[in-house]
Amino acid sequence: MTACNDELPDPDLIYLSCSLFPPRQVSDPAQQQDGMAKYTSYKVNTLVTSATPAFPFQNSSVIRRYSDFVWLTNALSIEFAGSIVPPLPEKQAVSRFNAEFVEGRRRQLEKFLIRVSLHPELSGADALRVFLSADDIAFSLAKSSKSTEATGDSGGGVLKWFKETKTVLAKDLVKSESDGQIEEITQYITTLETQMKNVVQHTTSLVKKGKETANGMFEFGLAFTLLGQSEEDQLGTALTQMGHTADTLSVLSLEQAEKEGASFEDPMVDYIRLIASVKTALAKRHDKRVTYSTCLAEVAAKQGALAKVQGAAGKEDKVASAEAALKGSEEGLAGAEKDFKEVNERVLREVARFKVEKAADMRKTVMDYINLQIEYNKRMEQVWQALVPQLENISVGGGGGRGEAGGDDRVRTNSELYGGKEGDANDKDEDLVGV
C-alpha cells in the first residue's frame, strides 16, 4: 500500500522523510555463514526524530535476516489477527546470492517495513518495536517467547482441532450481521485476484516481447551496418547510420522493457501477494468464527450434562464437577466471542482501507505507465527523425551527384517531380493511363 507521498524511497537516500512515522531503511546486504549454511543479512536503520508512545526508543541499527522478517510477519498476524499484514518477497531457492536478486529483495523488505510503519495498528505492535531495536540476545529471547505464545494460542491441541473440525463439518457456525458483507468481500477478492493474475500474465508477456524487440533491433542494425560497409559514398554512409540508429533504438527498447518491468509488472505482482494477505485476514476471521461456534456448542453440551445430574440424590460430586466444567467453558466462550467480534470488526476496517489505497495505488501505477510510454515514444521519434535528413540527401544516378544538365539527383517526391501537390501527381498518373 502507499508510502509517504505515494512513493518508495530513493535508494540513494540514507533515511526516509515521513511526518508521522519514524523513517527506516534496509541497507548493506552482506553474505553470512552459519555452519554449512549461507544467508544474507541486512542492516535495518531506524531514525526517530522525536520519541512517541509507539516508538519510545532512539535511533538504532540492527542486523536482521530474511527469516527474521518472516518472524515479524507471523508475530503481527497473531498480535493483530484479521489485519492485512503487508506481504514479504517470496523465497527463492536458486541464485539467491546474485547481486541483482539481493538488491531487489532489499528494496522489497524496505517496502514491507514502510507499509508496516504506515499501518494504523501494526505500526504500534510490540513485535515491531522488538524487531527494530532489540540486540541479538534480546531479539533471540523475544522470538522464542513469541513462538511459545503462538503454540499456546492453539491450546487444546488435537482435541481442539477435532472439535472445531466437527463444527465445520456440521455447518453449525454462529451467525453475525456482517456475514453477508463478508461473503461479498470474499467474492470481490476472488474476482480481483483472477483479474490481477490475468493482467500480470499479459504484462509479463509484453515485457518479454520488449526485450525480444530490443534484441531484434540490434540484429537489424548490425545487418544494415554491414550493408553500409559494402556500399560507397553517401549511400554507404547513410546505410551505416541506419544501422547505428537501430542499435541506439535497441538500447532504448531494452531500457524501456526494464522500466516497464520495474514500474508496472513488479507492482502488479506485488499486489497479487497483497491480495493473498487479504485472504489470510479473511481466513483468520473464519478461524475465530469456528472457535466461537465450537465454544457455543461446548457450553450447550456442558449445560445438558449438568441438567442430567442436578436434583439427583447422591450425585452432589458430579454436580460440582459439571458446574466447574460449565464455568470453564463459559469463560472460554466469553473469550472466543470477544476475539471473534474484534477480528470481525478489524477485517471490515482493513478491507475498506485496502480498497481506498488500492484505488490510489492503481491510479499512480497506470499513470506512471502511461507517462513512461509517452516519454519512450518521444525518444524513439527523435532518434528516427535525426536519420531522415541523411537519407533525403542521398544522391542517385551516375556522374557523381549531378546529371548532365546540372540537375539535382536527390530522391524526390511526386510533388517535386510534377511541381505541384500530390493531387496533381495523381492527375498525371490518370492521364498516362488514358493514353
Description:
The protein is mostly helical and 435 residues long. The chain has two domains: 1-153, PX Domain (2-Layer Sandwich); 156-394, Substrate Binding Domain Of Dnak, Chain:A, Domain 2, CATH 1.20.1270.60. The protein has helices at 66-79, 99-118, 126-133, 136-153, 157-169, 179-229, 233-309, 316-392, 414-418, 422-434, and strands spanning 24-34, 37-46, 60-65. A hairpin with a 2-residue loop joins strand 1 and strand 2. Helix 1 runs antiparallel to helix 3, helix 6 (179-229) packs antiparallel against helix 7 (233-309) and helix 7 runs antiparallel to helix 8 (316-392). Mean pLDDT is 81; it is low at 2-23, 399-418 and 428-435.
Q: Can you list the strand order of the major beta sheet?
A: 1-2-3
Rounded to an integer in angstroms, the radius of gyration calculated over CA atoms is 34 Å
CATH topology of the largest domain: Substrate Binding Domain Of Dnak, Chain:A, Domain 2
How do the helices and strands follow one another from N- to C-terminus? Answer: EEEHHHHHHHHHH
**Class from helix and strand fractions:** mainly alpha
Question: DSSP strand (E) fraction?
Answer: 5-15%
Shape: elongated
- Percentage of helical residues? 55-70%
Counting DSSP H or I runs of 4 or more residues, the number of helices is 10
The CATH homologous superfamily name of the largest domain equals Arfaptin homology (AH) domain/BAR domain
Reported for the largest beta sheet, the result is: 3 strands, antiparallel
Mean pLDDT: 81
The CATH class assignment of the largest domain is Mainly Alpha
